[in-house]
Specification:
Elements (H helix, E strand, L loop, with lengths): L1 H13 L5 H16 L7 H7 L3 H9 L1 H6 L2 H28 L8 H4 L1
Length: about 110
């Protein structure tokens, strides 16, 4: 677990940004600061300025459910739910057989 934590910090700090919109946004901010021209804006800033509140709410609340309807995402979620449920069930069965009195289950039923 500590290896994954170290890797996350390492990659977050040392890998360069590759998303085009973010690179252009940072470049526009830097150029505005250097030139003093507030009219310099990236395409993402121009697009964001024209959004209404309804569009922002729709994008943040409805879009995740639309994405969850994609077949690959749906079946991955279904598989993870099945795996997590089976592990929880195994843990419950194990706790019942080791500690039958803690869950108030009769010993004859708990195995």
């Amino acid at each position: 677990m500590w290896i994954s934590g170290f890797t996350l910090v390492f990659l977050s700090l040392l890998l360069p940004e590759t998303y085009e919109a973010t690179i252009l946004l940072k470049r526009a901010r830097r150029l505005r600061k250097l030139t003093g021209n507030p009219e310099l804006r990236s395409q993402s800033e121009i697009d964001e300025a024209s959004l209404t509140h309804g569009e922002v709410v729709y994008e943040s609340l409805v879009r995740p459910f639309v994405l969850a309807a994609e077949p690959a995402v749906f079946f991955a979620n279904l598989y993870l739910g099945l795996v997590c449920t089976s592990f929880r069930l195994l843990r419950l069965v194990e706790s019942c057989s080791h500690y039958p009195g803690s869950l108030q289950i009769r010993y004859s039923i708990s195995g």
